[in-house]
Model the fold of this input.
Amino acid sequence: MTADRRPQRGLGAGAGLKPEHYRDILEGRPGVDWFEVHAENYMGAGNGAGGPPHVFLERIRARYPLAVHGVGLSIGSADGLAPGHLARLAAVVARYQPLLVSEHLAWSTHAGVFLNDLLPLPYTDATLALVVRHVDQVQTALGRSILIENPSTYFRFETEQMTETAFLRELARRSGCGLLLDVNNVFVSAVNHGFDPLDYLADFPLESVGEIHLAGHAAIEMAGGEALLIDTHDRPVADPVWELFQALVARIGPRPTLIEWDAEIPTWPQLADEVERAARLLQEAREWTYRSSVLSHAVGEEGTRCAATGR
Amino acid sequence: MTVRSTHLALAAAVAAASLMSAGAGAQTANADKEKCFGIAMAGKNDCAATGNNSCAGQTKADYDAKAWKYVAKGTCASMEVTLKDGMKRKGTLMPM
Amino acid sequence: MREPPEANDLRAWQSVFAASLLRAGAIMPDRQAVHRNNTRASLSSALAARFPVVRRLVGPDFFRAMALCFIERQPPRSPVLAEYGAGFAHFLDGFAPAREVAYLADVARLEWARHLAFHAEEAAALSIERLTAVAPDRLEQVRLGLHPAASVVASAWPVVSIWTTNAHDQEVRPLGDGAGSECALVTRPELHVLVSALPAGSDRLVAALAEGNGLAEAVARAATVEGFDTATALSVLFRSGAVASLSVGSFHSMELS
Done:
């Protein structure tokens, strides 16, 4: 049952909002805690920013909390941010008043050409300075802090001066942004580069995590027979990714968690099952952290009493 | 046409247009037929955050007229389109 | 915004990498080629979704190859993918391998018009009763304001019939003798985008109205085209929701829903 499971505080488990599900959501009023949209899908086309996307999003926004996830700002562009696009992002944020706003640690535009992919960045001091400056610019334009997401990567740079986790920690510290921890991206990169995803999580600045993403990935075989994982968002979340998620929230407690399913869109009930699974794990984590806090509180009181009586 | 006859012609046309439109709520029926292209008009920024698993090694096509090897295998081949001038056009595409 | 000099290496690399993503023949290591595949496949999928009838006409393989040529020549200039494809119809005009399907570019124009209509601003459409309520002697001075979603695609080909059978029918209908040029009206009075056929010459009528001319002047410009019929044109325009405002002389009214 999804109806009984409301979060005690903040956002629980949500789903990426797809036009294919507008009607299911408005007619069925599912017990999903929140929805996330890609900012660029609500920026219109040509001169218009109306039509069914906005009609439906307004209605869904009236019933559910919303998060806005940018996929086209190209925060890692050495060219600088496109001011026009930043203004359009600000307009979407102003119109829909989302609880969370996020973007990617990646670049996607060069010399005005949009490449429609999240491209990797070398983790160097120069890149860090650039990204900090851009995040600052975005936060100033939006008048709020944003979350930056760790990427799925397929190759590494020889010139790197720090790890991804160190880069993200410094980025959060210097810019004041939060982090969106995509657990599937951690797993994809771990397999692709041969590191232990638990080590990555141990090094990650978990105190900055404001949102979690979960999604499906695909495996392809490359020329030499080597397997490579691709962040496809076109299928259910893989079991090892669920395990990592469970380990993560057991450690840091529940965080707003989103199921992303952007291609080969499933029926609404299929997607709702994935959200429900995330919700159950969040609930377990919530109970666990609640028990731990009660326990530590009781121990604390006991200690105080002992101290008082033992005087 | 005199000024007077323009008046009359326009008034008659508007009256006729009004009659043609009577009872014509037909447009929404037209919309319901749009099964394939309903409200979820696609081609959005949904692929941006994602790879496309069908993509690996499949995007090698280049436009070089001499090397163009694709033959249109869609409906154009079976849909004979006749112009008013009587010239028939059948959209068969031959490789160049 | 200018970046400090340390960013120069990054800029140089991004420049090289961006170019290799778009170029078909670029040699890249497999792991980097993942991104080229992502870029090219996702953009060609976006075009396929935007131009489904063009795709059906030529078939998926031909379409994808054609789309990749377009992507290489005219990559997106905006991160908003919904804005990609404005130049596709013009590209098809000059695309030699598709020359035999002479109507392909006009079908693409119609599909692009549908796409823009989908994203147009909202407005209430007027019913024809607003026009019939005008005194006959004042009809000539009536000015009709077009709905933001309304546009016209005039073609030397039966573009409405081609679009309709490919959009709705399991198997395409033969377009028999006498299927000549067609003038398509694209509208979106509410949630659904509609495609209707207007009489020949209606593109002139609509263009004249859009320039702010009175009804008499607009009709006169269209009437020079053989086959134009004022009553049919007005009936289709109102019935499809193409008219959003009507004014006579100094009087101006907007229908409020």
Chain C touches chain A through 50 residues (CB under 8 Å). The longest strand of chain C covers residues 182-187. Residues 30-50 of chain C form the longest helix (21 residues).
